[in-house]
């Protein structure tokens, strides 16, 4: 046999072996992924289950939760008077962080910008006379407060049955099926199937049922997984809309210095918008927030504004940096003067260490777990000066 033919034969054998090995992985993950890219019906089923059980769940994909959160919001509207808005940085806020008279739903969604938040809040203010309090984060660390333009107008509604919420091509689904997270998840699933008391029953639940069987979280809360990733981990959202963060690990204390050092460099996502804008918030956004707060106050309620907690030591490092310190101080000064002028209260939780938050109460630099948020809101509601005096409040008197 000639060298060329030997080479071709070797390549064909290699391709055949790879195909034999990868085809089952591709097939199994593709079947699992079909539910991840499912229709709005899944969000509605997950919402109905949570309404009936008050358990922990979510509709796939976890990274695009608008359909599920919208379904939950409209299920909860008859029984609540307060809504928490924002992006995933606000998902650690729970019902029990508020006074007993406030009935709260956390409507925060992954990647939700401040402009969208304002439009959502304005819609609810116009259409829901029973709402009294709107809780809105001003994420300067993610640049939301500096983004140019004017907030638009949205019409919130629960998802419509049978409507495809996430459009993904066949190629996209195949690519997702072979992605590293999916392959790792499949290996974990296969291991669980092999160890299950009844592997056929476990296979049926994973591949043929629309969702997992009901189970219990460690604290006894009911749970049900409508996706195949993070099965049995109590990942998702509680009845009050807050996230469990069960799929993420807390930041180890030993990593804090490295994360802070990376955050302070001029090219970091936390520094770029600060430097580019000189710390000047978008005035149109502030005007819309002031008008919203005025309308809520006239209706007998109000708006609670807050700057989300950051990893302990991170904001202090940004204030001390020659690249970002001046701009960040400028932002704080504008916030304080604006809040005083508009008779608004703004919680400044950026220096989370002032409230006693620990590094282990974060999953990264800007996502605080409920333990940290409980410290922030607990101190706020218990301080008579904080709830009565307009301006920027930071747990202690903010240095002018």
Task: Give your account of this protein's structure.
- By secondary structure, the protein is of the alpha/beta class.
- 45% of the residues lie in helices and 7% in strands.
- The protein has 14 helices and eight strands.
- The strands form two sheets. The protein has a six-stranded parallel sheet. A two-stranded antiparallel sheet has the order 4-5.
- The longest helix is centred in the first third of the chain and has 34 residues.
- The protein starts with a helix and ends in a 7-residue tail after the last strand.
- 38% of the residues are buried.
- The model has no long low-confidence stretch (mean pLDDT 87).
Taken from the alpha-carbon principal axes, the silhouette is globular
Number of H/I helices: 14
Series of secondary-structure elements, N-terminal to C-terminal: HHHEEHEHHHEEHHHEHHEHHE
Uncertain runs: none
Biggest beta sheet attributes: 6 strands, parallel
Measured between the Cα atoms of the first and last residue, the distance is 85 Å
- State the assembly state of the protein chains: single chain
Q: Strands of the biggest beta sheet: in what spatial order? A: 2-1-3-6-7-8
- Strand coverage percent: 5-15%
Radius of gyration: 24 Å
Let me know the number of strands: 8
Helix and strand content put the structural class at alpha/beta
Task: Give average pLDDT, whole number.
Answer: 87
| Secondary structure: helix percent | 40-55%
């Amino acid at each position: 046999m000639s060298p060329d033919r030997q080479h071709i034969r070797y390549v064909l054998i290699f391709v055949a072996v790879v195909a034999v090995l990868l085809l089952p992985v591709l097939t199994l993950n593709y079947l699992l992924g079909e539910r991840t890219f499912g229709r709005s019906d899944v969000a509605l089923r997950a919402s109905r289950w949570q309404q009936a059980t008050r358990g922990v769940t979510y509709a796939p994909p976890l990274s695009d939760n608008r359909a599920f959160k919208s379904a939950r919001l409209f299920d909860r509207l008859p029984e609540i008077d307060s809504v928490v808005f924002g992006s995933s940085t606000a998902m650690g806020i729970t019902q029990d962080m508020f006074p007993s008279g406030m009935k709260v739903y956390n409507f925060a969604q992954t990647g939700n910008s401040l402009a969208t938040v304002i439009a959502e809040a304005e819609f609810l203010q116009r259409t829901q006379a029973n709402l009294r309090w709107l809780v809105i984060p001003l994420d300067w660390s993610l640049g939301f407060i500096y983004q140019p333009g004017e907030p638009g107008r949205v019409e919130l509604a629960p998802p419509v049955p049978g409507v495809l919420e996430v459009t993904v091509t066949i190629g996209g689904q195949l690519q997702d099926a072979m992605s590293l997270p999916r392959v790792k998840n499949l290996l974990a699933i296969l291991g669980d199937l092999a160890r299950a008391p009844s592997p056929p029953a476990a296979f049926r639940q994973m591949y043929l049922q629309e969702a997992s069987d009901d189970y219990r979280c460690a604290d006894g809360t009911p749970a049900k997984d409508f996706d195949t990733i993070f099965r049995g981990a109590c990942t998702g959202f509680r009845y009050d809309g807050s996230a469990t963060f069960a799929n993420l690990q807390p930041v180890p204390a030993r990593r804090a210095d490295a994360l802070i050092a990376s955050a302070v460099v001029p090219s970091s996502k936390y520094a770029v918008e600060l430097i580019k804008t000189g710390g000047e918030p978008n005035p149109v956004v502030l005007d819309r927030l002031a008008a919203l707060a005025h309308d809520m106050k006239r209706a007998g309620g109000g708006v609670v504004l807050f700057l989300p907690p950051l990893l302990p030591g991170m904001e202090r490092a940004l204030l001390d940096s020659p690249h970002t310190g001046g701009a960040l101080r400028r932002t704080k000064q504008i916030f304080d003067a604006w809040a005083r002028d508009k008779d608004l209260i703004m919680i400044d939780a950026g220096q989370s260490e002032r409230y006693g938050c620990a590094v282990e109460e974060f999953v990264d630099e800007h996502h605080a777990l409920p333990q940290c948020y409980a410290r922030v809101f607990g101190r706020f509601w218990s301080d008579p000066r904080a709830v009565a005096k307009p301006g920027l409040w930071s747990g202690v008197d903010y240095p002018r």
